[in-house]
Amino acid sequence: MGAQAVKAGQLTLGQVIALQLYVGSLLEPFWTLADFILVYQTGKTSFEKLQELIETGDDLEADGSKEIAELSSISFKNYSFSYPQAERASLQDINWTLKAGQTVGIVGKTGSGKTTLVRQFLRQYPIGQGNFFINHQSILDFKRFSIEEKIGYVPQEHILFSRSVGENIALGKVASSSEEIEQAIATAAFSQDLKRMSDGLDTMIGERGVSISGGQKQRISIARAFLREPDLLILDDSLSAVDARTERQIIQNIQKERAGKTNVIVTHRLSAVNHADWVLVLDEGRIVEEGRPADLLAQRGWYYEQYQRQQSQQGGE
């Protein structure tokens, strides 16, 4: 239309350009209004969900009144657990006692219930059916916070903040000295990586900082847990992103620095638990094999077959 008007002599080229600018200025508020309506609707929905979450009561059992001075044992007897609205149980007929000072490995194929089992310790879900004891007393007798502060849990998916490396590690223990942080870093086999970072412990990570690998994220989280010096350390497939050499170094450090303390290592790689005092093999939520690593190899069951398969894969690399 503008070109035809210029040809007909009704408008000059400058007038056409000015008209386009004015039309754009006229429409801009309407575009802004449309964006505002979209943002408002999104915000309104999010606020309603947040309000619903705040108003939702805690569906866990009432908190106990006792505090744990020292974690001496955790035991399950005929214990089963199902997630809310699940069609089948995720854990079935679990009978197992974790004693203080033990290092226990938990292995099994994906979806066998390994993570579900160790998360029972954290009381993230209502207690299942059967008996679940801490120090020979019902877990329901104890305050949840008292249980949590005795456990250092490192999941596979790690939560790091857009802060410095040092600040992320120090979250494990607020009043920690530089020597304690350095020791935790060494135990997590992260010292050499830290030396390669331009600002060392002050290196910023996340959105405002450098990008780090999955293995580095795992080791920062592991260092954070080491710093707490928990009664019970749980590594829940949290060595999956590190190479075999680094994994071996971390396991050796655990054996040395946490000798006499309680450790649970959930893993797919049997090399991470061949030093363990006891190993559980889970399948479809049940303990199908258990014993010392050497005894499980002698039984020639799932553990033996998986061990042979992984050894042959390592040999071919």
From TrEMBL:
Gene Ontology molecular functions: ABC-type oligopeptide transporter activity; ATP binding; ATP hydrolysis activity
Leader peptide range in chain numbering: none
Biological source species: Streptococcus suis
One Gene Ontology cellular component: plasma membrane
Domain of life of the organism encoding this protein: Bacteria
Name of the molecule in the record: Putative ABC transporter
InterPro entries: AAA+_ATPase, ABC1_TM_sf, ABC_transporter-like_ATP-bd, ABC_transporter-like_CS, P-loop_NTPase, Type_1_exporter
Keyword field: ATP-binding, Cell membrane, Membrane, Nucleotide-binding, Transmembrane, Transmembrane helix, Transport
ABC transporter domain location: 74-309
